Amino acid sequence: MRRVSDLPDVIPVFPLPGALLLPRSRLPLHIFEPRYLAMLEDALKTSHRLIGMVQPREVPGGGEARLQAIGCAGRVTVFSEAEDGRYMITLTGVSRFRIRDEVQGFAPYRRCTVDWADFDRDLGPSESDVGFDRPAFLAVLGRYFQSVKMSTDWEGLRGAETELLVNSLSMLCPFAPGDKQALLEAPSLTTRRETLVMLMEFALTGGAGGDRLQ
């Protein structure tokens, strides 16, 4: 799947609040609900093995949650089955997509017609971030991790490729779903890194008038 033309027009989607997948990144998932077990089994029967991760949007007074317009599709690259029928899988991010319409049918899970055209860059090589200041970035990250009581392998972070570092932290940090969506929709790695730093600094200053985390 090196070109947009290689990607399917219809994919299954997995609405999971706060779960972020980015191109060339990996997202482990635990699948146990019957409808998503059916989704996985159907995806494994296809040649592309794609599942779209998308943030749901709660609508007051509405029924089923609506979906954000943009998500990211991942290919099932690792899966294992537990004795009770549950699956542990890993999705490797392929490309973001824009939802055109939701497909009506008899499947127990949701499927959408999607457009990949705006995200052909996702199918290319890793992005670079020319203005990346790693020491300054890690200093903010250290204060943020301390504030939310998270630990990490600092030696690994110091040597990690820039895209892997920024994308992995975007997926890992416990931001609100709306913030995760902003990270997903960032048009470049530089913009994503700037958004990530802004979110960490916002949390450290207590957000909108709250207590400081430092």
From TrEMBL:
Sequence ranges assigned to domain Lon N-terminal in this UniProt record: 11-204
Protein name: LON peptidase substrate-binding domain-containing protein
Pfam families, per the entry: LON_substr_bdg
PANTHER family reported in the protein's UniProt record: ATP-DEPENDENT PROTEASE LA (LON) DOMAIN PROTEIN
Gene3D superfamilies, A to Z: LON domain-like
SMART domains cross-referenced by the UniProt entry: LON
InterPro entries noted in UniProt: Lon_prtase_N, Lon_prtase_N_sf, PUA-like_sf
Organism: Neotabrizicola shimadae
